[in-house]
Amino acid sequence: MNKFFIMVAQTYKNRVKSKSFLITTIVTVALIFALSNLQSLIETFSDVDEEKKVAVVTDNEDWFQSLNQVVSMNDNLSLEKYNGSLEEAQAAVEEGDFQSVVDVEQGEEGMPEATYYANKIANTGESDPVRQALQQVKVQYVTEQANVDPAIIQQMNAPVNFELVALEDSAKTAEELNQTRGLVYVMLFFLYFSVIMYGQMISTEVATEKSSRVMEILVSSVSPVSQMFAKIFGIALLGLTQFAILILAGYLGIQQSKTLGDGSMLEFFGFNDINPGTIVYAVVFFILGYLLYATLAATLGSLVSRLEDAQQLLAPMIMLIVAGFLIAMFGLGIPDSTFITVSSYFPFFTPLIMFLRVGMLEIPIWEVALSIGILIGSILLLALIGARVYRGGVLMYGKSTSLKDLKTALQLSKKEK
Amino acid sequence: MTLRLEKVTKKFGSFTAVDDLSLEIPEKQIFGFLGANGAGKTTTFRMVLGLLDQTKGEISWNGGDIGYDQSHLIGYLPEERGLYPKLKVQEQLVYLAKLRGMKKSEAVQQIESWLERFKVPEYKNKKVEELSKGNQQKIQFISAVLHKPKLLILDEPFSGLDPVNVEMLKKAVIDLKESGTSIVFSSHRMEHVEELCESLCILHHGSPVVHGKLKEIKKSFGKKNVKVIADFDLAFLESIPGVTKYKPLGDGCEIQIESEEIAQRIFEELQGKGFVRKFDLEEPTLNDIFIEKVGASYE
Fold first, then answer.
1. How far is B273 from chain A (nearest CA, A)?
2. Which first-to-last residue range defines the signal peptide (chain A) (predicted)?
3. Which domain holds residue A91?
4. Are A102 and A228 found together in one domain?
């Protein structure tokens, strides 16, 4: 077997068996199942079937009747006229006979006014139906006083018809935009977390081999350049494994929640029917983004000789991806601004921001091609520089926590002939 | 298969790490490569292994360049222990052997026999970090020789080992030489070098100050040692012309002299002074030569 693949296999094997890999995978799978079944979960934990009783204290029988009429449409709530005093009603609430008590009085100009008493008022979900019902009663009361035809009132209350139509043929419809926005969101998170997680893994791998000095043996058997790429591909394989597991979990979760009859969570993320072109772009940008950041991480990892220093040197890389992520988040709302357009050509931001633009806008193919070209160019350039830094970097020991070491490393790997 | 270095120079910026070094290490020989700390030994090894490019000069092995396609013929034991602390001994050795072009089944078999030979077969499935320093060194040694290299570089191979284990590894080194491996041996323990090496080179600030066969080096050094044990005070010997060093011992003294003739003079001076228990004319030790050649510049 080729030495390159021996190293890829070893890197992969080591990591796949590690506890941290198992734990993160299991936790994420659990999270995916929880998310895809969020609705049924919420329903399970809230006591839906228990009907809440609300006591009403009022002198006006008419108001109670109309209030009761409106509320009766709500399954979870029932009103009851309380014939005692307000104090007695409050005591009954404290004892748990009622969920709450509403004191409805005649206020200024004869309008109904109410005070809502409950043991806790944190959950507005409980008081809101009552408030809305009372609002309707008030409208009814006012219009009755003014002798307005109920049909007119109905017309007034009906929601207005408002439709969004893009005039450009190629522009995406609002529905499409919502779908891709969800996908772009997910993709941004995926790329962001993978770069941070796998980038750190790569530099840790390299730094571990250096700090244990096994690197001296390795560099004498395999060239540093193939070592570096073996690390990058080994960790990429690991990432693929993890994603395969997560996607499978996600698929199963979706299937499950579909059989339960609600796909609203998925619709929210626009997963129901995705444009295949967007998926292709997602994969392309993901792979290129990974390669770019992984090469950078391996290069930086080769400069340190102790594991603790690796974090410090990685900081600039993390800052780059965080900046890209923030710009992308900001760009989700205004994908066509000049700032977003310009930053989509900066190679370290391209995977996130160009993808956002392709997903959200209809942009000419040459723009995408140009940005991918720049991205691939930078990956090659970085790999070239990285390989040279790596060659020298792995021979450097001592405390090294600054980018000045780049120069030393390049000097060490200098081709003399 | 001869390793040949011709006028090799390595500069790091304005600093010259190795200066005009020429060596020849024939097959079936252990070559001592000595030098004070920072003399340029590791830099030389790294150039031989192809990790660094020399600024000037030629390095050839068997007439050709040394590249990664030949790494299965080369074994390297670095001065600092370099193993994966978290990996099990066998797993680790198999991996390193595979990188040197060995098949897994063959590697497993060899590992068994080496562990057996070093009397540590029970460590096969232990993590390296659980082993003692000396036992880690044995594993390190195995990793360097497992693939039967033709050129073996040993940098302080016996550090951290007790005398029994030193003998065991020494025997292994000699056996490897007998089977045709060229060995470059670097150590600060002069008695090991004297015992194992036929020829050697002492590097000082990047250039060789002593180079050749051990016997000839000793002969051409000229100075000899005289050890005297007597019942009377020997301090007067220090003032005899030709005595370069005087070191009192508990019941006598050790004297370094410029040449053999001075010994005769000393012998005469001792006559009639009292009872002399021991008078011994000795060859200089490698230790003396090293201190003389390398230490001179510190004074």
1. 59
2. none
3. 51-157
4. no
| Strand partners of residue B4 | B24, B60
Contacts of B238 (CB under 8 A, 6+ apart): B246, B255
Distance from CA of A34 to the nearest CA of B (A): 35
Distance (Å) of CA A105 to CA A59, A69, A112: 7, 18, 6
Preferred mutation among B73, B84, B103, B139 to probe A, highest tally of A CBs within 10 A: B84
Strand-pairing partners, residue A81, are A56
Give all strands (DSSP E) within A43-187, no chain letters.
Answer: 52-58, 77-81, 100-106, 112-118
Whether residue A339 is found in the same domain as residue A364: yes
Positive/negative CA dihedral, B80, B84, B90, B91: negative
- Asked if B53 and A417 come within 8 Å (Cβ–Cβ), the reply is yes
Residue ranges of alpha helices (H) inside chain B are 41-48, 89-99, 104-117, 133-145, 163-178, 190-196, 214-221, 260-270, 286-295
- The domain ranges of chain B are 3-214, 223-283
B8 chain-A contacts, CB cut-off 8 A: none
> Six-digit token pair at B20?
């005009």
Structure tokens at A240: 């693929």
- Residue B34 dihedral angles phi and psi, to the nearest 5°: -115, 165
pTM value is 0.73
Please check whether residue A52 is in contact with residue A99, taking contact to mean a CB–CB distance below 8 angstroms.
Answer: yes
- Average the pLDDT over each of A73-87, B47-61, B171-185, B217-231 and give the range with the smallest value: A73-87
The helix/strand/coil state of A173 is coil
User: Across residues B268-286, what is the average pLDDT?
Assistant: 84
- Beta partners for A104? A58, A114
For residue range A105-156, list pLDDT tens digits in order. 887 777 888 888 888 777 667 778 888 888 888 887 888 788 887 788 778 7
CA distance A246 to A32: 8
Query: What dotted CATH number matches B3-214?
Result: 3.40.50.300
Dihedral (CA of A73, A74, A75, A77) sign:
negative
Asked whether residue A218 is assigned to any structural domain, the reply reads yes
Q: How far is CA A32 from the centre of its chain?
A: 12
Please list the residues that pair with A80 across neighbouring strands.
Answer: A55
- What would the two tokens of residue A398 be? 């001592």
d(CA B182, CA B3) in angstroms, rounded, equals 8
- Which fold is adopted by the domain B223-283? Alpha-Beta Plaits (3.30.70)
Chain B residues in contact with A6 (beta carbon < 8 A): 95, 98-99
Residue A39 lies in a domain: no
DSSP structural state of residue A404: T
Please report, for residues A231, A314, B207, the alpha-carbon distance to residue A384 in angstroms, rounded to integers and kept in the order given. 16, 19, 35
Nearest CA in chain B to A412: B52
Which residue from A129, A154, A121 is spatially nearest to A70, judged by alpha carbons? A129
Report the alpha-carbon distance of residue B231 to residue B251 in Å, rounded.
7
Q: Please give the sequence-ordered ranges of beta strands (E in DSSP) within A48-207, or none if there are none.
A: 52-58, 77-81, 100-106, 112-118
Give the chain B residue nearest A408 (alpha carbons).
Answer: B12
Predicted ipTM? 0.77
Beta carbons of A225 and A391 less than 8 angstroms apart: yes
